[in-house]
Structure formats: structure tokens, C-alpha cells
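Question: I have long wanted to understand how a fold can be written as C-alpha cells. Here is the record:
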Amino acid sequence: MTRKICVVITARPSYARIRSALYAIQDDPNLELQLIISGSALLPKYGSAIDFIVEDGFVPDAQIYHIVEGETLLSSAKSTGIAVIELSSELNKLKPDAVITIADRYETLATAIAASYLNIPVVHIQGGEITGSIDEKVRHAVTKLSDLHFVSTNKAYERVIGMGENPEFVHVTGCPSIDIARKIQEHPSIDFDPFIKYGGVGETFDVSQDYLIVMQHPITTEHQNSNDQTLATLSAITELNIPAFWFWPNPDAGSSGIAKEIRVFREHHNNSNIHFIINMSPEDFLKLAVSSSCIIGNSSVAIRECSFLGVPAVNIGTRQFGRERGNNVVDCEHNSSQIVSSIRHQLQRTDITKDNLYGDGTAGKKMADILATCEFNINKSLTI
């Protein structure tokens, strides 16, 4: 009898983090894929990730709207509660044999809570890692709610075991996002016009020349500083006068501050060579990334995929504090002059190496193989 594996995708990064596993689950005769799309993945404001999911041939079994507008601490808390309620209803209808939840967002926690109280085994991807902000609390809470763990690194494996999880149910698979990066590494050429295909706002430029990528998200524990932090980065990129793609922030507390400063900047810098884009498909984004001169901001893509691809990265602030990284990353504070000097340093480097820290590009198949054969057990067995 086939096992029904329900995957919950709640945001645009979540899709890149699981896509290769979706294909592998779909292709395995012992598994049946169920798919729930919710959260910002459904909203045009954040790039409608569901469009890319459907274009790739996946058919959602359910779509759940649960985000409370406002991008504040209160709206995030309320969105989590609504997500628990709505996900519980859908999971009760679908009755999967296991539920996959991804990474460390509030929707990840809501998925784990809903499935746990329905006695559905929870499979967690990317547990055991360390970062700043509330993500740290959420990720480790989800680990304790989960029954099967697919971790990306050996240190993450050790941390999950250290939290009392049974080693029998913890597997080092690597991160599925590296599976996409591996494909791009083999065929890295930019075979599309990003300005025509994805639109956006701002001047166009020649992507065969030097350009930067900026991905800066709010830090939930520093949400009140989002405006100033965004201004520091805008000032640095403007001073460098290198063309840049700047991607829209995710819907966490503080994102409204980032959005406001971007809009004000656009109004007063009509001839800026920064091009603002909401979203791209995972492949197209990585094609741009691998050909870029540097990626700047605080997204984990700079540490995960760009480490594998050997793309220089400047990580700003505390959002990724403590996360394992390759030698492609340098860190700096939310200070315009520090950001400028860090980017200039990265642009001059010739010693950046590609790193398999987060996997070798085969995570999706590994996950499907384990899901098809492993024991699902919701009764925790402490090992410490």
C-alpha cells in the first residue's frame, strides 16, 4: 500500500527547499504526494509562488489563506493561530501517513502543531541549525514536535541528537535546494531576459556585465530597526554604483518598514540602477546568482546555495548568526560604510571555493527513499 506524504509549502523559499523532494516523492511507486499551499506562497504581493509550483506540474490538494495583514509581531502571532486551525481541518480531510514541514517559519510551527495533535507523524527538514531572531526558537520547537528529521549538515545532526531525538530517526540528507544548485552549476547560462520575464521596477541593465543581488529580510527581534537597516543597505548599493537586482522581503514583522523605504527610494531615485523584483523561479534566480558579482543581505540562500556555487556573499546583521557557512561569506553590521567595504573586499577575492557543506545535490531522492521504507513512529523515545 502506498504511503500518503503531505507536504505543506507556505512561502517562496520553502518551495526551493523542497522541490526536488516533491519530484522524487511523486516518482516513487510506494509514495503518494499530497500538497497543501498556504501563507505568502498564495499572495501576489509576495510573488505568488503557487504559480511556479503549478507550472512545474504539481497539483495542490488544498490552498489555505491564513495571513493577517500588518507585518507586525501581533499579526505574525495571529497568523500562526489561524494556520493551526486551517491546517488541522485540511490534514484531517487528507489523512496523510506523514506531513513534511520545512525550515523555521511560523507556518512551519503551525504545521507541526496541527499534525502532532492529529497523531500524524511530522517530518522536519532543516532542523538542528543555528540562526538569529525568533527562527531559532521555532526551529528547535519544531524539532521536538517532529518524529523524523532530514538535516542538512553533520553539525545539525549532532544538535538534533543532543536535543534528545532518537538517532534512528535522524538522517543527514543535505538540503534539497542544493539539488537545484547542482543543476544550475551544470548549465549556468542566463537563457532568459529577467526584465521581460519578471518585470519589476527600475532601470534595466546588461546582465553580461557586473551586477549585484540584494535579498534583505526583516529581523523579527529587531523589527523596529527595519527602516534604518534598509536605508543603510540602499545607501551602500547606491554608493557602489554597480547595477543590482533587489528582491522583495518576506512577510515577517518589519517587512512593511523595508517596503516603505524601498518605495521612498524609488520615488526619489528615478535613474537608479537598482532593479526591484518580487520573485523568480528557483532556477532562474540561481542562474542570476551564479553569474552575479556578489549577493548581499541576510538570506540563507547566500549561505546555502551560493556556498555550493561559490558566489561571493556579504551577510548583513544577525539574522543568520551562527549558521554554518563556507568561505564565500563575510559578515558585517547594518552600517553603510561597512557594507561598502565588505562588498569591495568580496569583489576582489580570488580564493573563494565551492563547498558541499549543505549537500551534494541528491537530497530529494534520499528523502523519498527513506520515506518509502522507514518506520513512522509518533511515540518519542528519549536517548539521553
